[in-house]
Each structure stands twice: as structure tokens, then as C-alpha cells.
Specification:
Order of helices and strands: HHHHHHHHHHHHHH
Number of helices: 14
Structural class: mainly alpha
Length: 290
């Protein structure tokens, strides 16, 4: 449970939302049946949980980062770092997750299959190594996590349309952290990370972190608006998804205390549940009415 972070579901939700947003946006112009939509969304939720557990999110990350984790207060009690789980045992656990995830991808068309494999292996697998060479590892993580939005779109349309690309860029801004989400997450560990030699945007941004977070929040809202225009979304989308997201991010930034780990984690969790739900809610209402 600790190794896969099943008990910390916010991370899985942050991987699920890009899929849900992409699937719901793709379903509207096709008038996809609610039954098929619900089936696809359920598959996406299972896949997001597996992807979060096994690759950039948890197991693979913990295997590669075990020496770093021992030097950071929040992570030194992780199962691999403190020796409760061996590396071979973790690799076996990881392999089981990979088999399950590839099985979920199997029925997809060629484009969705290829995008899915790229998401699982090179993109997610390389992320832990990026923390050793750049202060922008979250930029890579954003790409790794959010190609799943393109997988969702291409699974229905067998192409990558401009609307899906705009949505992907918005997801990147949200989840990535040169952007909003993972910089907030990284703020929890910035003191320990400096001592351990771990690089992150939380350290790079320094005293300007809230200003830069505001810029990426603005990019998210702009990308959501652009995706809506390109996909012909209706009033519910622009009112609930675009307007609701903008309002929520403003309030969150005003409340965020970047020097308080508890405040940062609270923002992290709220992005995983509340903000993702706001974006999806407008999309879903628009899909139903369309």
C-alpha cells in the first residue's frame, strides 16, 4: 500500500483528470453514448491508478530515488528507502503493473496504442533521472503525465486534433510544475532537497514562486479557453470549466503559504480532487447537453 501510494489517491486523480478531460471533450462532437463514455472513463481511472503507482509516480521513482529519499524528512520512511521492500521485490511489483496497464491499452487503435506506450515507458521512466540534471524535472513530468489526454482523444478519433493539443498544453501547465501542481508539491521538501542535491522548480523559482505559479495558472485557463473554441464547446463549458477554474486558482494562490508544508500539501490535494472536478464538471455538462 505504501509503495503504490494507494492510500494517497490525489496523485492518481491528477493522472486521471487529463484522461477524463480528453475523453469528455472528444465524446461531445461524436455524441458518444453515455454507456460507452462511462465504460471508457472507468478504464481510464484504472489505468491512471496503475500509471501513478508504477512509473513516475511511485514504484519506479522510489527505486531510483532511494538514496535521495533517505536524506529527505518526508520520504525517508518510504518502504524501499528504509529497507522494508527490496529492489528486486519492487521490480517484480512494477512488472505486474506494466502487464496490467498494457492489457488495458491492447484494444486501442494504432495511434492511441503508440501514444500509450510512449507514456508508460520512456516518458514516465525517464522522469526520476531528470531530477539529477535539471531544475525543471516537473516540465518533463508534465509531458509524461498528460500525454494521456492525447491517448483519450485519439482512442475515439484516431487523430490528434488542435483542440486536443491545446488541452494537452493546459494539462501540462496544470500538472507539470514549472507550472502549478508539482511545484506546490515540491515546495514541501525544498529545504531537504537543497541539502540532498535534488533539483526542482520549487528551488529554482525561489522568492518568485507565487508569481511564476500565477503565470502558469493563467496559461492553464488560456489553454482551456482555446481548446473550447477549437472544439466548439458550449456555454456550460466556458462558464463552469474556464470561469470556474480561473476563480478557483485565484483563491488558491491567495491562500497558499509557500513556506508552510501543510499549506502546500493541502493545495496539492485540492488540485487532485476539487480543481480537476471543476474542469471535468463543465465538460461533462456540455457533453450531456450537446
Amino acid at each position: 500500500v505504501e509503495l503504490s501510494r494507494v492510500h494517497k489517491f490525489a496523485g492518481s486523480m491528477l493522472m486521471f483528470w487529463p484522461f477524463a478531460w480528453g475523453m469528455t471533450m472528444a465524446a461531445r462532437p461524436l455524441s458518444l453514448s453515455l454507456q460507452t463514455y462511462a465504460f471508457n472513463l472507468t478504464h481510464g481511472l484504472v489505468g491512471a491508478a496503475l500509471l501513478h503507482s508504477m512509473s513516475a509516480g511511485c514504484v519506479w521513482n522510489d527505486i531510483l530515488d532511494r538514496e535521495f529519499d533517505r536524506q529527505v524528512g518526508r520520504t525517508k520512511r518510504r518502504p524501499i528507502a528504509d529497507g522494508r521492500v527490496s529492489v528486486p521485490g519492487a521490480l517484480l511489483f512494477l512488472a505486474i503493473h506494466y502487464v496490467m496497464l498494457v492489457t488495458l491499452l491492447w484494444p486501442c487503435n494504432t495511434l492511441a496504442w503508440n501514444l500509450g506506450l510512449v507514456t508508460i515507458f520512456p516518458l514516465g521512466g525517464i522522469y526520476p533521472l531528470m531530477k539529477r540534471v535539471t531544475y525543471w524535472p516537473q516540465a518533463w513530468l508534465g509531458v509524461a503525465m498528460n500525454t494521456i489526454a492525447l491517448v483519450a482523444w485519439s482512442a475515439l478519433h484516431a487523430d490528434v486534433a488542435p483542440a486536443s493539443v491545446a488541452l494537452f498544453l493546459g494539462c501540462w501547465s496544470f500538472t507539470i510544475r514549472p507550472s502549478f501542481f508539482y511545484t506546490i508539491y515540491a515546495l514541501q521538501d525544498k529545504r531537504d532537497d537543497v541539502q540532498a542535491g535534488v533539483k526542482s522548480t520549487a528551488i529554482l523559482f525561489g522568492e518568485y514562486v507565487k508569481t511564476i505559479l500565477a503565470l502558469f495558472a493563467g496559461l492553464l485557463v488560456a489553454c482551456l479557453a482555446a481548446a473550447g473554441v477549437l472544439n466548439g464547446q458550449g456555454v456550460p463549458y466556458f462558464a463552469l470549466t474556464v470561469g470556474g477554474t480561473a476563480s478557483y486558482l485565484i483563491v488558491q494562490l491567495l491562500k497558499l503559504d509557500v513556506d508552510d508544508p501543510k499549506s502546500c500539501f493541502k493545495a496539492f490535494e485540492s488540485n487532485g480532487f476539487t480543481l480537476g472536478g471543476i474542469v471535468w464538471g463543465g465538460l461533462f455538462v456540455d457533453y450531456l447537453l450537446g
